[in-house]
Input
Amino acid sequence: MKEIVQLGEHEALRMKAQDVPLKDIQSKKIQDIIADMKETLEKEPDGAALAAPQIGVPLRIFLLAEKVFGVDSSHKAASKDPHLVFINPVIIKRSGKKALMDEGCLSLRGKYGTIQRSTNVTVEAYDEHGKKFTRGAGGLLAQAFQHECDHFDGVLFCDGAKELWDVDMSEQKKN
Output
């Protein structure tokens, strides 16, 4: 399991992440990174998603936990893995409609804020087997896509937040 780096601890959080060469997707190196990310995210009770830069790896990979896309999704029915993996994701469509959404980040422990996001987006990416796919989303899932893709440009939600506040994480861990 890798540690989730916090803002100011590792330059990967503010770097422009590199594409994963398609020929390398099924390599041991990339598969090990994905396995590390899955294990790390599983250990986070409040974790919904994780981008590779958050474990200090400046590559364009993120994954979503089952809690984001729902236990009854078509993904869950087709896979025993409770994660959705996105490699080299690109948001190819954003709705003009935007909304203010509350947001947090595993790399900014105890900080939350309100940020304006498109209410619907479509992402094109590769899965962990190198298969290209397109996925549209609204609500929390659309928000997660945008948040994770921002990580690839070194952007954190606090950079665009309209309001920020602190949360006592010791209280949250008790619940």
Residues 72-78 have pLDDT under 50 and may be disordered. The two ends are 24 Å apart (CA to CA). The helical segments are 28-42, 66-69, 74-78, 139-151, 157-160, 169-174. The chain has one domain: 11-174.
